[in-house]
Amino acid sequence: MMMNKEQEKLPLPLLFRQEANESLLAFCRESARDLPWRRSVTPYRVWISEIMLQQTRAEVVRRYYDRFLAELPTPRALAEASDDRLAKLWEGLGYYRRASLMKRAACVIVEKHGGELPRDYASLRALPGFGDYTAAAVASFAYGLRAAAVDGNLLRVLARLFRVEENVLSSKTAKTLREIAYRMLPDAKDGTSGGERYLYDGYAAAEWNQAMMELGAQICLPNTQPKCEKCPLSAYCIACAEGCAERLPIRESTLKRKEEARTVLRVTDGERYLLHRRAEKGLLAGLFEFPNKEGTLSEDEAKKAVEEMGFSVKSLRALAPARHVFTHLTWHLSGYEVTVPPIDRAALPEDFFAPTKEELYRDYSIPGAFGAYKP
Ligand code: SF4
User: Fold this and answer.
1) Distance from the CA of 51 to the center of ligand 1, in angstroms?
2) pLDDT value of position 228
3) Which atom of ligand 1 lies closest to the CA of 237?
4) What pLDDT is recorded for position 183?
5) 214 and 346 in a common domain
6) Is residue 245 in contact with ligand 1, taking CB distance under 6 Å?
7) Are 75 and 183 members of one domain?
8) Residue 249 lies in a domain
């Protein structure tokens, strides 16, 4: 985030800025992980990595990042990628909406910014899918701007450092913590105070952002596991001094997640598998799925559902139940493998497909929600 004049007047908490930041940056230089997106920093590479890293662990992102960039190396390539190819490259990372927003942003970058990510925070923030965090990450890592990139991990660290007893999921508290983070950023002149510089040489805010991210990933861990004895900020941390780090931050979601039962029908003729493309709007928009019905269907109900799709049923066997959690919804899944006579691909209704197993794995992106029912 960037601050306005009023926010600039906020008091700076604790003794940060010099002593604490030096300790923090020294820790980062010693223990920052070697991650592919830190080896060569460009605005596009920073953006792709930051989107992939939302909701997904770095170890998982490692497996996707280089392959994605090799195939879609520029915003223009991303803007021109087919939706199916993009979904296939994203398969396994989950939260597909991130990928479709990335493509929308890439189109804006091509149309309005000549194919390059804009260089100022406000223009970055205006791109589809760019929240405060992503805009600040690109602004600081790629362009050296003074912006604090505060994600859920940083909220946790900050809530502990300053013993914030308010709900960090409320936008008011999160905003206050982002303002505090901004106040903690070193200026270019005191960022490294003459010591050895690290990857983002001369980019004081970038170094600080990365150091805080490393602290959140390696030391100030969630739940009951902060490693305060190894923390470079322990001398400044209120929660550590007062022995309440383990119960912070307070995260009270007002979100009520809906529960829904669904039955997945893995229809096959022994060689091909029936797939359906979901509607272009709503949950998992435009992605492929195994046919499925709301509710927990009995064998007879499952058989009838497949017959209504135009197939006669040869045999049916139950598959193991599964569960999938979306942001607003939990699916409790049951499933059947339903064997039918040879599927005539030419006679399939619109939006239905019947790939072989090999084609399914090679060409079709199946969302994680149906992952348990892949053949
Ligand atoms: S001292 Fe402990 S609680 Fe405080 S920031 Fe460090 S690891 Fe987190």
Assistant:
1) 26
2) 95
3) 4
4) 82
5) no
6) yes
7) yes
8) no
State which amino acid sits at residue 111.
E
Cα–ligand 1 centroid distance for 16 (angstroms) = 14
Q: How many domains does the chain have?
A: 2
**Nearest-angstrom CA–CA distance, 143 and 298:** 58
Condensed to tens digits (0 to 9), the pLDDT of residues 264-277 reads 999 999 999 999 99
Q: Are residues 190 and 265 in the same domain?
A: no
In terms of domains, do 20 and 127 share one? yes
Distance CA 365, CA 93 (A): 11
- Domain encompassing residue 342: 258-373
Q: Ligand 1: distance of its center to the CA of 164 in Å?
A: 13
Q: What is the pLDDT of residues 21-55, one digit of tens each?
A: 888 888 988 888 888 888 788 999 999 999 999 87
pLDDT, position 2 = 42
- 82 residue type, one letter: S
Q: Which residue has the tokens 């359906």?
A: 276
Inside any domain, residue 239:
no
What pTM value is reported for the model? 0.77
C-alpha of residue 218 to centroid of ligand 1, in Å: 11
Q: Which stretch, 98-107, 141-150, 204-213, 233-242, has highest mean pLDDT? A: 98-107
For residue 230, is it within any domain?
A: no
pLDDT tens digits, 162-195: 899 999 989 899 999 998 888 888 765 433 333 3
The per-residue DSSP string of 272-296 comes to: BB-EEEPPSSSTTTT-EE--EEES-
Any ligand 1 atom below 6 A from CB of 20: no
**Which residue's CA is the nearest one to ligand 1's atom 1?**
234
208 in helix, strand or coil? helix
Give which of 93, 130, 99 is closest to 113, Cα–Cα.
Answer: 130
pLDDT digits (tens, 9 = 90+) for 91-100: 888 888 899 9
Q: What is the CATH number of the domain that holds 81?
A: 1.10.340.30
Atom of ligand 1 nearest to the CA of 245: 3
**242 lies in a domain?**
no
Alpha carbon separation from 156 to 54, 111, 169, 360 (Å, rounded): 15, 38, 10, 41
- 299 carries an active-site annotation: no
